Amino acid sequence: MTAVLAAGFLIRVPEIPILYETSRNLFFHVPMWFTMTVVFAAGLIFSIRYLISSSMRMDALAESATMIGILFGFCGLLTGSLWARFTWGTWWTFAEPKMNLSAMALMIYVAYFILRSAFDDPEKRAKIAAVYNVFAATTVPFLLYVVPRQLPSLHPGADGNPAFSDLTAPELRLVFYPAIIGFIGIAVWITQLRYRYIMIKLRAERGSAPTQL
Known about the structure:
- This protein is mainly alpha-helical.
- The chain has one domain (about 1-10, about 25-205).
- It is built from seven helices and no strands.
């Protein structure tokens, strides 16, 4: 992953109107959203598995995946804001639906943890959180992909902006695709660490005999 990031800064990028050297942000901004989507999808699967099995392991995995998804989502917003500053002249604009709807999607997921904190009973908390997580996951495709396509946008592909095909020139793909794989790998690793922490904490609270995680 270090080699990929180093290549992202050192590789020669093509002359793309409006973007120019900021096109290097492609190696960070877009993979963040890919990673967020993958981890949120994993959280959805774990929540559904919890509703089927009532296994606290599935709840711990769902909570871990959702937290890491939010982390990468905020990184996506941050890198997008930096890109906006250099290409649109502002850190944030309410004229760009993708930015605002992405922030809305993340707030829905932040509410997931607020909801979890409202219950002391682990089983009740896990069940309600799982149901909410299913609802939250269904909003992502609409807020991030369906609705923005129906509205005017400043993002690549819209009027006055280079198409996304310009951003995937051969020299950029050499770093772009490995970056996606690398960030997803990091997300999986961090999710596993968070999951192990939750299980150890849960066993300590219940006084359960330690078993291999």
